UniProtKB/TrEMBL annotation:
Catalyzes the epimerization of the S- and R-forms of NAD(P)HX, a damaged form of NAD(P)H that is a result of enzymatic or heat-dependent hydration. This is a prerequisite for the S-specific NAD(P)H-hydrate dehydratase to allow the repair of both epimers of NAD(P)HX. It comes from Zunongwangia atlantica 22II14-10F7. GO terms for biological process: metabolite repair; nicotinamide nucleotide metabolic process. The lineage of its organism: Bacteria, Pseudomonadati, Bacteroidota, Flavobacteriia, Flavobacteriales. This is Bifunctional NAD(P)H-hydrate repair enzyme. In the N-terminal section; belongs to the NnrE/AIBP family. Belongs to the NnrE/AIBP family. Binds 1 potassium ion per subunit. It catalyses: (6R)-NADPHX = (6S)-NADPHX; (6R)-NADHX = (6S)-NADHX; (6S)-NADPHX + ADP = AMP + phosphate + NADPH + H(+); (6S)-NADHX + ADP = AMP + phosphate + NADH + H(+).
């Protein structure tokens, strides 16, 4: 699903009105009716007190329509108009009159702190104050009202966006914004719903298809693409019945040091479970018995050194090399890595200590084969590209970095971001249980396993990240977040592939 900016959504809005020959009031009615239907589905005529805070723009207009529908269904609704301006939108005014016709009553106006209503923690609050039209931080009594709503501890449903959250920049620490439990957003999610600095304000997220112009939605380039099952499925390449292991490539997994052989084991196993035809593992001698015993399906080559990598002399023609897990940063290992880079021309996957070696020896960057996949977590990224001001600045810096070196970059996080070919993809699978030792090693093996099967590195990164999260979700369902360990993600790759095609 594409992610659009506020300006693009406004354009989609205008085109929809023109091409579907409807009024903006009808579009608002359509969008807000879908929201009230969702609320009704969940509340099931409950007697809960619903308090709807409406701004005086179109987000407020949505709130008034939702109020009218819920009142018609018999809910106990109280509407408050947050009168931040005398400049009310046309559709706000139309729906203000319609609400009055339904209730024969005027909503309460909030014009200062004296008008703040009491909010009980058992109330159900709907935030329809500001949406994508917010263009400056909230001030004065409006900011205080937001704090008042948050402090009530009531359940908060935000319409389109939590009020106070900008669609295109990070709020300052002192800014007031709604901390929603649930956000129902129109047509496409907004980028800030997935950024580490702002995602917590959104709560659970539901996107409603309000039927905006199809032609625009499919032809317009998004700011990013959200990867869910539908998008991941499109990347999957089925296997031919008439094939042999040679068709699925040979992944060479290089890494490990004394006490860290487990990382290479996890990556190698993940590459096999993802479908690589052959996997060879290149490790220090101390890992030989461990690997051969724990993973008889892999071939093992050892360095002449017992405890670290000193010379990666593999004498093979692997389809992909996956480097760095548990490798340490010994000067001899760095030298060996440099030689490996100079002798490799196919895209590689670089993780963990491989990334740290590059961060500390930037001259290595020029030897990286084009389209290689780097898989940093935020700390590793910071070592690679330096500091950033905020999440938007980070995205810009990563785009510059990946484009200037022609790389694919997987930035791991609650929502993993994938950058490549000038585009940005946001993964929508996975869960907090996956923040556990070895989870990244498994991801490296999965992506390498896909590249070995001739997936383009960018497609391998996107699909790999999605499958990794999906497998983690399957584990968490059966085992809880706490008990999930990385080996479980590998073991459930089969279930993840099956689930990719199950609805
Ligand atoms: N696009 C679509 O497809 C559809 C959109 N729909 C809905 O419309 C919503 C967007 O509505 P909107 O454009 O009227 O903006 P909204 O967020 O209500 O803000 C209103 C005004 O507030 C002002 N303002 C800004 N910052 C401020 C501040 N700090 N303090 C005080 N005032 C401030 C600013 O006006 P200004 O003061 O700058 O003149 C701004 O114009 C969208 O989120 C969705 O809910 C659906 O109905 C149907 C389909
Ligand atoms: K809102």
């Amino acid at each position: 699903m594409k992610i659009f900016s506020a300006a693009q959504l406004k354009k989609a809005d205008e085109l929809t009105i023109k091409n579907q020959n409807i009024s903006s009031t009808e579009l608002m009615e359509r969008a807000a009716s879908l929201v009230s239907a969702e609320i009704h589905k969940r509340l099931q005529n409950s007697d809960i007190a619903i308090k709807i805070f409406c701004g005086v723009g179109n987000n407020g207009g949505d709130g008034l329509v939702i109020a009218r529908h819920l009142i018609e269904k018999g809910y106990r609704v109280k509407v408050f108009v947050v009168n931040y301006s005398d400049n009310r939108s046309n559709d706000f005014l139309i729906n203000y009159d319609r609400l009055k016709e339904t209730t024969n009553d005027w909503p309460e106006y909030i014009k200062s702190e004296h008008d703040f209503p009491e909010i009980d923690q058992n109330d159900f609050v709907i935030d329809a104050i500001f949406g994508i039209g917010l263009n400056r931080p909230l001030e004065g009594w409006i900011a205080k009202l937001i704090d008042h709503i948050n402090n009530s501890k009531a359940f908060i449903l935000a319409i389109d966006m939590p009020s106070g959250l900008f669609s295109d920049r990070i709020p300052k620490k002192e800014d007031s914004l709604i901390l929603a439990n649930f956000t129902i957003s129109f047509q496409t999610p907004k980028l800030v719903f997935f950024l580490p600095q702002t995602m917590d304000y959104v709560g659970d997220l539901q996107i409603l298809d309000i039927g905006l112009d199809r032609e625009f939605l499919s032809s317009e380039k998004g700011k990013a693409e959200l990867i869910s099952k539908h998008e991941a499925r499109l990347l999957y390449k089925p296997r031919k019945s008439n094939s042999h292991k040679g068709n699925y490539g040979h992944a060479l997994v290089v890494g490990g040091s004394y006490g860290k052989i487990g990382s290479v084991l996890l990556s190698s196993k993940a590459a096999l479970r993802t479908g690589a035809g052959l996997v060879s593992t290149y490790i220090p001698k101390c890992g030989y018995s461990i690997l051969q015993t724990a993973l008889p399906e892999a071939m093992v080559i050892t360095d002449k050194n017992d405890e670290k990598l000193t010379n990666i002399d593999h004498k093979m023609d692997p389809s992909v090399i996956c480097f760095g897990m548990g490798a340490g940063k010994d000067p001899e290992t760095i030298e060996a890595f440099k030689k490996l880079l100079q002798n490799t021309h196919k895209p590689m996957l670089i993780d963990a200590d491989g990334l740290n070696m590059i961060a500390e020896n930037k001259e290595l960057l020029k030897f990286l084969p084009k389209k290689s996949v780097l898989t940093p977590h935020p700390k590793e990224l910071q070592r690679l590209i330096g500091d950033w001001k905020d999440d938007f600045d980070k995205i810009e810096k990563v785009q510059d970095f990946t484009q200037s070196h022609d790389l694919v970059l997987v930035l791991k996080g609650s929502h993993t971001f994938i950058f490549g070919d000038g585009h940005m993809y946001i993964n929508n699978s996975g869960n907090p249980g996956m923040a556990t030792a070895g989870s990244g090693d498994v991801l490296s093996g999965i992506i390498a396993g896909l590249i070995s099967q001739q997936y383009e590195p960018l497609a391998a990164a996107i699909l790999g990240v999605y499958l990794h999260g999906l497998s983690g979700d399957i584990v968490a369902e059966n085992r809880s977040y706490q008990a999930l360990i990385s080996g479980d993600i590998v073991e459930n790759m089969g279930a993840a592939f099956q689930s990719l095609f199950a609805d």
